[in-house]
Amino acid sequence: AVQRIWVTTELGAIQAAGGIIMPDALLEPDRNNFQTLTVAVALDPNAADDDEPAGTRDDSATGGRMIVIGDVDFLQEQFLQANPQNLVFTLNAIDWLAQDEALIGIRSKLRTPPVLAFTSEFQRVALKWGNLVGVPLLFILLGLVRVTGRRRRAETRWKGAPA
Questions:
Q1: Domain boundaries, the chain
Q2: Which of 3, 51, 84, 118 is least crowded, fewest Cβ atoms below 10 Å from its Cβ?
């Protein structure tokens, strides 16, 4: 049985070999080539295909499991640092291949924080400058309030004392 385990969105496309894949490269993709693409499949002779009619599978088939991935670059260090879920996928795949699926549920619960989604550019800029300038200014203002309050209390305390 063949199961698709890793697919692109509807905006996936195939790029010719030697093309630029940098995220900041300005490319004009051919919108006619957009489609959902399968990147990885799992082969399990003991499972039924999704499109296989019930009762037509040969239960006497035995054999090992296999995972076929379109490219192994997702395991390179530069991609693992940016996408730690690639390592989780690989470890889960190894557990599935070894038919030891007990750890898969535990390991998959380790989540990375979600990406912040802003509805406008103003929100993104406001959060950026609020963190860079606003938070330090808040601490400076709190310090000034505390220092001036201590001075006032000290002055009032010593004004009433006999000399």
A1: 2-71, 77-114, 116-163
A2: 51
